[in-house]
Amino acid sequence: MKRDRTPRETLAQSLEYASFVEKLGYEQLDEIFRNYSGDEALNLAQYHREYFSLVSDEAVVFNNDQRIVIVGQKITPEIRQTSTFLRNKGVRVTCLEFTFFKADGGLRLLSTSIVVGNESANISKVSSSSLPVISESSFFNSLDPNGKFVFEKLLSWAKSNSFPIHWGTKGFSLNVNLSGTHVAFCFGYPPKAVFQQSIYSALVGRGGLLVKTGISEQELQVLITEAQNTGLFQPAGRELKCLINRKFSESQVDSLIAWLTNVTKEIEKHGLKGQGENNA
After folding, report:
1. Cα 274 from chain centroid (whole Å)
2. Which of 10, 2, 39, 30 is nearest to 187 (CA)?
3. Which H helix or E strand runs over 3?
4. What are the residues whose beta carbons fall under 8 Å from the beta carbon of 203, sequence distance 6 or more?
5. pLDDT at 125
6. Quick one: pLDDT at residue 61?
7. Distances, alpha carbon 103 to alpha carbons 71, 107, 109, 113, in Å
8. DSSP run (H or E) holding 189
9. Are 8 and 79 in contact (CB under 8 A)?
């Protein structure tokens, strides 16, 4: 993206970016996604499945093809000519010009035109900028009455038990502090998030139980069964989600918090992976 004209080296820079991106595997794309979103335990595949409303058995291949898009207020003739040449050779290059207008009353308009592309035709370390982190007040302002009722009780319980709360770009995670290492046990999301207004477990994700603690798969399955027995959770890949799309009763919120309490006890019981149980 260029604010004004596209200099001659723009296309060479774009080709360098494309050659870099082509070598990225899923694990590296997943890392970029987590860094950008600000949520350590988010999973790219699961987020993609939720965003596009895919069923669990729909297979998705990431980074199977790449495309170069050059955006500028003015695409120079040299860039147009070279981009057209590359397209004829099978490289997917599109050039798009834009014009910005500000009308009376503060209305802002953006006009775009595709000037090239309308015709038929392993990296060890990656990094990304991140989205701004949401505040607690803005999070609550985004909730509906059903969500406010549940999340007020949930966060009050978390604060009374001194569980660290990490605010992300859309919601938050609740964590257990194990000697300075925070282990996530659930995530909360507002209505406009891809995950909708909900609470997600952190049983198998990057920042959760299976990865960070010594819990076994069998013990994890016991927690999953207990959650399902509450009638509040449903499967979300290997995680569980509790959709807050209706009014919850006091007893339902108590049941939810009781299950989360059991999860925190399992974290404290097993301790960090490789260090044995805290009570051994």
Report:
1. 28
2. 39
3. strand 2-5
4. 209, 210, 220, 223, 224, 238, 239, 240, 263
5. 58
6. 83
7. 23, 5, 7, 20
8. strand 181-189
9. yes
Q: Pairing state of beta strands 181-189 and 234-236?
A: unpaired
Residue 242: burial class (beta carbons within 10 Å; 0-12, 13-18, 19+): buried
Distances (CA, A) of 251 to 164, 232, 264: 25, 11, 20
Query: 144 near 191, Cβ under 8 Å?
Result: yes
Q: What token pair was written down for 253?
A: 């919120």
| Pair 267, 213: CB distance under 8 Å | yes
pTM: 0.64
- What the block records as the tokens of 107 is 């209305």
d(CA 209, CA 184): 7
189 touches 196 (CB < 8 A): yes
Instruction: List the one residue out of 241, 221, 248 whose CA is nearest residue 49.
Output: 241
Please report, as a single letter, which amino acid is at residue 106. G
Longest dimension (CA), the chain: 72
* Cα 176 from Cα 270, distance rounded (Å): 12
Structure tokens at 239: 């995680």
- Give the integer Cα–Cα distance in Å for 77 and 82: 9
- Helix intervals (H) in 188-232: 209-212, 217-229
pLDDT of residue 207: 67
What's the distance, CA 102 to chain centroid? Answer: 33
Please calculate the CA angle 266-244-264 and round it to the nearest 5 degrees: 10
pLDDT at 21: 92
Catalogue all structural domains in the chain, each as residue range(s) with its CATH number.
Answer: 2-24+63-116 (no CATH), 136-270 (3.90.1150)
pLDDT along the chain (280 residues), means of 10: 77 89 90 81 80 72 88 88 90 88 78 78 56 89 96 96 91 91 92 92 82 90 94 90 96 96 94 64
